[in-house]
Amino acid sequence: MFSRRVKAAATRGVSFGASSLQGRRPSQEDRYTTIEQLAPGCGFYAVYDGHGGERAAVFASAAMQARLQASPGFGKRDYAAGLLQAFSEVERDFLALAERDGLSDGTTAVVALVEPTVLTVAHVGDSRGVLCRGGAAVPITDDHKPEVAAERRRIEALGGFVSYIGCWRAMGILAMSRAIGDLFLKPYVSAVPDVKALPLEESDEFVVLASDGLFDVFDNEQVVRIVRAADDPQHAASLLTKSALAAGSLDNITAIVVALRGYRPRQIDAHSPAELATATAAQPRAAAAAAVAAATAATHAASASASAASTAAASTASAAAAAGAAAASALCSATALGGARSVASFGPPVPTSHWQRTFDAWHAAFVAVEGC
Q1: What is the pLDDT of residues 332-356, one digit of tens each?
Q2: Nearest alpha carbon to residue 108 among 23, 46, 34, 63
Q3: Domain tally, the chain
Q4: Residues whose CB falls within 8 Å of the CB of residue 275, separated by 6 or more in sequence, listed in order
Q5: How would you classify the pairing of strands 253-259 and 14-21?
Q6: Of residues 162, 179, 180, the one with CA closest to residue 171
Q7: CATH of the domain at 229
Q8: Model confidence over 73-83: pLDDT tens digits?
Q9: Three-state secondary structure string covering 338-370
């Protein structure tokens, strides 16, 4: 039983929780920020998912709120204008650093300013925001992906291209079309955020901000279901990340849960990450998650015996590949763990050297059945 219960800090009836796991990646490139009162009656919450390294995410997480507070829009409580300026300045300043130091890092960003009656959200990339309204999931961001028609037209109008290499990629490299940083992919990868201000209603229960390590394995409705099973926002954030890991996420996983006026704890009776990973979907999907977990266990078992004779290592690699094939078959026969995402779009993490061979075999089994 998952028994950890942490009371979240509260501000004007709004409480929050946050959780971040490195997961199966060899390093942690996610960052997040939670500030109860950036201004009177206004909380600031943000998730950043770095790629190519952690430096863009570290920079953005340290700079975004400061640039926002210094903007003319912030003093006028025009937070949409303030966020547009803050994103622009963070992008400008990080690109100057990247050019000086030869950095190629980039990061997503999803930022929410929560007031008693208004939610203002800005984002670039595929980190996502979801609002629970009356028990239903309401998306408040749209993933910036190269295959989205408007994004593809923008890239091609600038002389760039979109190609499919395991998943759709801008310039054949990046699996998103907007991000902060990515010096060598400018101007095709834009840092101009989508910004919206949403009036909040009495039935609004909570907001979730999360990196794609969560949404690789759960859709919006499943995320809402997990949060509604929790005791409080901190418990909810922990359940989200632990359940995503249990369901087979291969990425860093970060989630922030902000409770709103309509929030009520424990509306669904489930307790552990394993229970939540199963309870959010039908049995075929749960079976797929179990198969992924089995493949992952085989991979980690191989890493423990990496120093054994090459014949033993080859045997272990074959077992891992078979487990990966079983997982891939389950994924193809059920709903894919990432909703609309293809199996290959999970992408391999950059593995540590001692389990490179086994992981390559495991991932190859997934890619081989992508079209099933």
Answers
A1: 333 333 333 322 223 333 334 433 4
A2: 46
A3: 1
A4: none
A5: antiparallel
A6: 162
A7: 3.60.40.10
A8: 999 999 999 99
A9: CCCCCHHHHCCCCCCHHHHHHHHHHHHHHHHCC
